[in-house]
Write a structure and sequence with these properties.
By secondary structure, the chain is of the alpha/beta class. The chain contains 25 helices and 21 strands. It folds into three domains: 292 residues, Rossmann fold (3-Layer(aba) Sandwich); 180 residues, Thiamin diphosphate (ThDP)-binding fold, Pyr/PP domains (Rossmann fold, 3-Layer(aba) Sandwich), CATH 3.40.50; 125 residues, Rossmann fold. Helix 1 packs across helix 4, helix 3 crosses helix 10 and helix 21 crosses helix 25. The mean pLDDT is 96.
Length: 647
């Protein structure tokens, strides 16, 4: 049995390690003269003790069975970078000193792919909680495929008052409780401070009751009591449900004059305050970025991490699931047997998409996904593949934002390709997660059906008008709006090779299956010449359901001696990446260029002289009536083009 003296010595050493994290974080913010010291300093004890429990290998940040740590409050990034440095990741002390500086590995908020050890990009509050949900979901599915001897890690997430005030956290916690994710541990830094002051200015709910109502196990502790933190984490790791640890903390703990105040949230402490605080904690007030040899030894995970992975590799060699893992890590999408469609028949692209999804699923066991309670309408069900977590159909519920954020994390887990779906107009609910996917180059697949005024009777609240323009404006995000079933197949072939997110905007109404022949170019180029005349004076650009309409307009004009080439543009984003030589081959120079699309379509002016699009929010009525009412009719458009030509 340890003596009281031994226990006191141990606590002193742990407190010194926690203070090392505390002042490293404060020094980073002070040197940058920018950042958020309060949360990082207040969570120092929590992070210090978590370091005892977390399993990872800094020498191989991608080791599959590592524990995942997500900072939902990305503004506390100084603490995360301090941990990564001390754990032994490729993040030097000089990088900590370059916090928030251009081209450093320590940006203001954590960025996936930019800093070794950062599991996912977080920024908008609440995002990380839903990301942690996604990692935990991916781990459960991986465990079902590979066994608990290979997949048995935990997912930890730090969050704060702001994260839990965001509605996204409600969605994510409900899903985690419903799924009974016993591998998820959420650590809530409850300091009761927001930017405007005390959190109770706008918030008075009982967080404990909220999570208990969502079927979580909840522990409440003193977030600065090292023994209590340790004991609670031990209990959390053995729990049979997701766990919330409410850690009552003091923001900027250790700051002599600013602890517990909103002034410490988003501004440096100031040199005098920092020096006085260091001195009180027994640190040299004039020494910045100090790490004692004892603290460095306590945090270092290099040897332990290598040993953990070595033992895991031995288990893998003996496992009967070794070939399953190999197949998951090396998907070969060239082997997908895509469906055939009869030219001239009519198939809604949401229906052809359903067949495509099932073809991909039949080829790759790591392909899974689901919808925000709209699978029968989105046509996203994987037939005969069962329900998550043992099967591949994920029922996200009516929670678009959490669905997308969880999908991002599942795609970063390292084994799976995951899609999610909703009506196109509801993509607005998940835009922040789509943006993160683009920023971090996460290959998530978004399926958005009911793509235009073709939604019909549900009316303007359900008819997407500006959404195409919005997502085409998003860098590193590829929005496909296929004209028919074969363009849909080609779009998937391209998207599966992209190291970026993609969206498939599909029709509710049936569209005629066109001939496979192309005059010049392909879907891989984003746009291609579908119909061409030697003496064309007009080029018509369009996407989706408007491509067949453009062909009809071209035929009418041809009968009147006006030659109109037709260019199909399934992916405007890829078209933008083509050089001038390619564009000149599909858009014949000196032709008058018109764009036709049942959406806002202002981006078409990049190439078009005139755009026939939408300038209202649609109306309620039969789809065919709406198209004619808003001018998307072959005769109306042919006449409009002649009018513009002065004919």
């Amino acid at each position: 049995m340890p003596t009281n003296t031994q226990e006191n010595i141990q606590i002193t050493k742990l407190q010194n390690s926690a203070d090392t994290l505390r002042f490293l974080s404060a020094d980073m913010v002070q040197k940058a003269n920018s950042g958020h010291p309060g949360a990082a300093m207040g969570m120092a004890e929590l992070a210090c003790i978590l370091s005892k429990h977390i399993n990872l290998n800094p020498k191989n940040p991608k080791w599959l069975n590592r524990d995942r740590l997500v900072f939902s409050g990305g503004h506390a990034s100084a603490l995360l970078y301090s941990l990564l440095h001390l754990w032994g990741f490729d993040l030097s002390l000089d990088e900590l000193k370059s916090f928030r500086q251009l081209n450093s590995k320590t940006p203001g908020h954590p960025e996936y792919g930019h800093t070794p050890g950062v599991e996912i990009s977080t920024g908008p509050l609440g995002q990380g909680i839903a990301n942690a949900l996604g990692f935990a979901m991916a781990a459960k599915y991986a465990q079902n495929l590979l066994g608990s001897d290979l997949i048995n890690h935990k997912v930890y997430c730090f969050c704060g008052d702001g994260d839990l005030q965001e509605g996204l956290s409600y969605e994510a916690s409900a899903n985690a409780g419903h799924l009974g994710l016993d591998n998820l541990i959420l650590i809530y830094d409850s300091n009761n401070i927001t930017i405007e002051g005390d959190a109770n200015l706008a918030w008075s709910e009982d967080v404990k009751k909220r999570f208990e109502a969502s079927d979580w196990i909840v522990f409440e502790i003193d977030g600065h009591d090292l023994n209590q933190i340790d004991e609670t984490l031990l209990r959390a790791k053995k729990a049979s449900k997701p766990v919330l640890i409410i850690a009552n903390t003091i923001i900027a703990k250790g700051s002599v004059n600013l602890a517990g105040t909103s002034a410490s949230h988003g501004s440096p402490l100031g040199i005098e305050e920092l020096e006085e605080s260091k001195q009180k904690a027994g640190f040299n007030p004039k020494e910045d970025f100090f790490v004692s040899s004892e603290a460095r030894a306590y945090f270092d995970k290099s040897k332990l991490g290598e040993e953990l992975e070595k033992n895991w590799n031995k288990a893998l060699e003996k496992s009967s699931k070794k070939e399953v893992l190999k197949a998951l890590e090396n998907p070969d999408f060239s082997k997908v047997k895509y469906p055939d469609f009869e030219v001239g028949t009519k198939v809604a692209t949401r229906d052809s998409n359903h067949q495509i999804l099932n073809a991909i699923a039949a080829s790759f066991i790591g392909f899974l996904g689901g919808s925000a309670d709209l699978a029968p309408s989105n046509k996203t069900n994987l037939d005969g593949f069962g329900d998550f977590p043992k099967g591949r159909n994920i029922h996200f519920g009516i929670k678009e934002h959490t669905m997308a954020a969880a999908t991002n994390a599942m795609n970063l887990y390292g084994l799976f390709r995951v899609y999610c779906a909703t009506f196109f107009v509801f993509s607005d609910y998940l835009k922040p997660s789509a943006r993160i996917a683009a920023l971090a180059s996460i290959p998530s697949h978004f399926i958005w059906t009911h793509d235009s005024i073709g939604v019909g009777e549900d009316g303007p609240t359900h008819q997407p008008i500006e959404q195409l323009s919005q997502f085409r404006a998003l860098p590193n995000f590829y929005t496909f709006r296929p004209a028919d079933a074969y363009e849909n197949i080609d779009s998937w072939k391209v998207a599966l090779k992209l190291n970026a997110p993609s969206a498939f905007v599909c029709s509710r109404q049936k569209l005629q299956v066109l001939k496979k022949d192309k005059v010049y170019g392909s879907v891989e180029n984003g746009a291609y010449l579908l119909r061409a005349y030697e003496d064309a004076s007009i080029t018509i650009l369009s996407s989706g359901s408007e491509v067949f309409l453009s062909l009809k307009v071209s035929s009418i004009l041809n009968k009147e001696g006006i030659k109109a080439n037709v260019v199909s543009v399934p992916c405007f984003d890829l078209m933008l990446e083509q050089d001038k030589d390619y564009i000149d081959k599909i858009i014949k120079p000196n032709t008058k260029v018109f764009a036709i699309e049942a959406a806002r379509g202002l981006e078409w002016y990049k190439y078009a002289d005139e755009v026939f699009g939408m300038d209202t929010f649609g109306a309620s009525g039969k789809a065919e009536d709406l198209f004619k009412f808003f001018g998307f009719d072959k005769n109306i458009l042919a006449q409009k083009i002649k009018d513009k030509l002065g004919l």
